[in-house]
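Tokens as discussed.
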């Protein structure tokens, strides 16, 4: 329960913090909380991937982009009202969607889990699903990421 509260508090502080670097630090806190929840659920591999991939790489990339953009002045007052209204509208829309999903799926907690096959761990099951059933999307994603890296290199060389 405490890990979930820390995760939620970190997520709220990501949105509420006016300093972008502080938001990135709160994002690390929130992502570490999600990794802790994965570990508590017995999915240690997903917890480790969450820490290495998201809390490490993605947040470092986020901070790098923020420093590359180098915002000198904050948004003007003409954008403050729009940002507040847009945030309230988006928050209300997400709340309505979550309530609608919760009301439609009342019996989701009563569905029993199939569990794992005897002798199979989470990593083995994840590997089988990823490399047997979803091999083509996995390889296409790697090509998209490779194209993104080349695009970043081209953009970086121009400056």
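Sequence:
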């Amino acid at each position: 329960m405490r890990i979930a509260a820390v995760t939620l508090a970190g997520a709220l502080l990501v949105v509420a913090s006016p300093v972008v670097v502080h938001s990135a630090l709160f994002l690390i806190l929130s992502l570490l909380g999600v990794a802790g929840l994965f570990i508590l659920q017995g999915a240690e591999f997903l917890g480790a991937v969450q820490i290495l991939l998201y809390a490490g790489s993605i947040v470092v990339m986020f901070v790098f982009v923020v420093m590359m953009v180098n915002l000198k002045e904050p948004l003007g007052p003409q954008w403050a009202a729009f940002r507040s209204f847009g945030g309230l509208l988006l928050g209300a829309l997400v709340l309505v969607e979550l309530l609608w999903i919760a009301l439609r799926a009342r019996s989701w907690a009563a569905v029993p889990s199939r569990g794992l096959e005897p002798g199979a761990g989470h990593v083995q099951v994840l590997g089988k699903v990823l490399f047997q059933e979803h091999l083509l999307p996995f390889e296409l994603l790697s090509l998209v990421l490779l194209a993104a890296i080349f695009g970043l290199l081209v953009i970086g060389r121009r400056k």
